[in-house]
Amino acid sequence: MRYQVWAFVRSLLIATMTLVAVIVVGSVGSGLLNQPAANAQLSQVSRQIPVFRRPVSPPRSQPSAANQPFMTLSPGRGSYTPAEEYAPADPTNFGDRFITDAFGMPTYQAPIVVIHETVSSANSALNYFRTPHPRDADQRSYHALIRRNGTVVYIVPPERRAFGAGNSVFDGPNGIETVTTNPLFPPSVNNFAYHISLESPTDGRGNQSRHSGYTTVQYQSLAWLIARTGVPQDRITTHRAVDRSGSRRDPRSFDTQRFAAALQDLAA
Ligand SMILES: [Zn+2]
């Protein structure tokens, strides 16, 4: 008698467990099969809530044409060859170039060059970039810097995004170009910019509007480095020109004629 009760309870238990298993497998299975429906639900939700989708960085490991690095430096040309140094920035001070913006739209901008000046000495700027800055607002970098003696210092690789000009717009031959990579910050040219900074003279370390300018070898190295980027002349600009914060005036006392002459010497 007892055995019969136990057998009944046991078969009841087995039946219950089987039922639960069927329900679990069924719901997982239907979840997989109903992917489009689930996606539709998700996209409905994401339309209602402004969810920040982190832009995807280009998969550099894949060699297909669509996944080429955004920018590479060709070998330098001409008879002038500057000294070169490498002073890599801490990874907190630069990021990936994005192939989609913060709203999921593809980024299409061709590279530009943005010219800056350090205001401080080259070494103190390099020290800043080498120092980790966990807070977004403190993160800063250039791709390269040119010392007073013409030495080119490489800081951030060209395929990565240096944080050189927050809140900025390039108003060039194709109209207004700028990219929002983080909806918490104003749009910026950083996603498609190569930032080069000239070391300021010692009389330019303050907030004055002018100073004694840059050395001939700085102009030569600047032209040499820009030639390496392959960026055309109508896409070379300054921090002052792209800035939309109203606070940037660099590079102060930049001599566009001397720069044009250096570019021309290189082409000759
Ligand atoms: Zn600047």
How is this fold's topology laid out?
Layout: H1 2-33, H2 35-48, E1 84-86, E2 94-96, E3 112-117, H3 122-130, E4 144-146, E5 152-154, E6 160-162, E7 170-172, E8 175-177, E9 193-198, H4 216-229, E10 236-238, H5 239-242, H6 256-267
Helix pairs in contact: 4-6
The chain binds zinc ion.
Task: For the structure shown, list the relevant keywords.
single chain, 268 residues, Lysozyme-like, 6-stranded mixed sheet, 32% helix, globular, binds zinc ion
What does this structure look like?
By secondary structure, this protein is an alpha/beta fold. The chain has helices spanning 2-33, 35-48, 122-130, 216-229, 239-242, 256-267, and strands spanning 84-86, 94-96, 112-117, 144-146, 152-154, 160-162, 170-172, 175-177, 193-198, 236-238. The radius of gyration is 28 Å and the shape is globular. The structure holds zinc ion. Zinc ion binds at residues 116, 239, 248, 250.
